[in-house]
Design goal:
This protein is an all-alpha fold. It is built from four helices and no strands.
């Protein structure tokens, strides 16, 4: 990979992270990752069925949930 291509990819990554930070999604994903990590201490993980995944995605991937998460972390900042 050339230096220009690598620099372009790095810039795209930075732009993507900034976009996620601004949307509040990154806070939600970070909190979710932490909870999953802590849950590993409880024993063998449970794997959701395709139907359970679809139901979770339908219920949890909503603009209102992301807004609540954004508001929560924004309030923590002061």
């Amino acid at each position: 990979m050339g230096a220009e291509s690598e620099a372009g990819l790095k810039q795209q990554l930075v732009d993507c992270i900034r976009m996620l930070e601004q949307s509040g999604i990154i806070d939600y994903l970070e909190e979710n990752a932490y909870r999953q990590y802590m849950a590993l201490h409880m024993g063998k993980p449970y794997a959701f069925t395709e139907q359970e995944v679809a139901l979770c995605r339908e219920k949890l991937w909503t603009a209102s949930l992301f807004k609540r998460t954004w508001d929560h972390f924004r309030a923590k900042l002061g």
